[in-house]
Design a protein that fits this description.
This protein is mostly helical. It is 52% helix and 6% strand. The protein has 4 domains: 2-38, no CATH class; 47-87; 123-168 and 177-183 and 199-277, no CATH class; 307-426, Ribosomal Protein S8, Chain: A, domain 1 (2-Layer Sandwich). It comes from Henningerozyma blattae (strain ATCC 34711 / CBS 6284 / DSM 70876 / NBRC 10599 / NRRL Y-10934 / UCD 77-7) (Yeast).
Amino acid sequence: MIDLLQDVFPDKPLQTLQQALDDANGDTQLASAILLNDTNPTTTLTDRELLTSIFPDTPHETLASLYNPSFTLDENVSNILQSENSSSPSVWQNTRNNINQVVQYTGVKDHFARKYLHQNGLNAVLAIISIINSFDYNYLQTKIASQHPGVTKSKSESSIYNKPNTSHIRGRVQTSNGFAYLNKKTNTTTTPRQDKRTTEVKNILNHPYVFNPLEYSKLLDIIQGDHNLRSVSPVFLKNSFVFFCGDIDKVLMVCLLVVENNNELQTYPSKEVGPFEKQLHPIDNSRKKLYLSHIVTTNAKIKSSPTRYKSPASTLSSPTTSNTDISNDLFDNGKIDFHGFLPNQVKNILQSSLPKWWDEEMLERELHSDKSGSLVKYVSPITIITGRGLHSVGGISKVRIQVQKFLEQNHYVYEEQPSLFIVQGKKIQR
């Protein structure tokens, strides 16, 4: 193999060729890539080119007008930042716009939208996802039926909703189960003492909603026909379908908003069964034990955690983290961050984590009687962060080499990006 590399790179010293071959674990193609990368000449960027890379969203004309050749790079950056801050809208106005967006997509009142907006870091899309995923239809129907037989909703419950803004409603004619009837008054009286959970329900139906499997099947057909929409959580789809009373147009509007803002991962709140999971997909007795044991394990893990909710930015980045911990946390944040890890640790971690992730997907497929396809449908894709150069040879990360080799050898389907891999599934071996 070293002879082959000598023929391709006659000007390279034998020691360099041997080092590249060792780093590639004997793979001549990978060794060639390392050597080719090492031969690429480095270029020095001017300050104006650096400013363009620092502010990719700022028009070139604006950067050119603000650039001062007598300033240092830091001074130019500071000058541009001051200019952008002075011309940007106020924080109050941004918050107001976000509240309006939440109200537009969900129909809740301002104070309710503001509450969820602050709980989600002023991110309107995350607030919308949180509202829909928090909705408890079964609890509401049981509570109202027990306290007020024959009555569907109370004043305090309906008070969280605004009158629907018809300028934003499009698509089919609204049925008696739709948004157009959400604010019709009823002759309902409220009890002096309302249950707190009842008053915080996220969707109020004028009539008991009856799940329509034919309409839901139409929604699934549309979702399956779009590669981007397939990445949205199936449980979130079901929650949205019932939240909007079977209005497919509104479900698609929310899903498109989620995809456009790259928030698909946040539609997977946990591995617990969603509010409608049992209602829409009954589990037969032969599978029930396996499925319930999975739920109990997940619940126990959540309750034993010091903090119930983790920051979305948290990743598996501690070199002292055990393989078992990484495997468990993989389903919570969807990331493996190999910053600080040595190349010889990478393979063991991947062997412990990725098979469990794929087994989770196969379990969900078994429960839904759907075993086809190599891309994940029921769990979120996994992001493996390799970095750009730590423990590198010729500018190519050794960790990155190990990750790519593992993914190839084990037939995983992935998307390669400059400093990370997005694992999207696994080729099914026949």
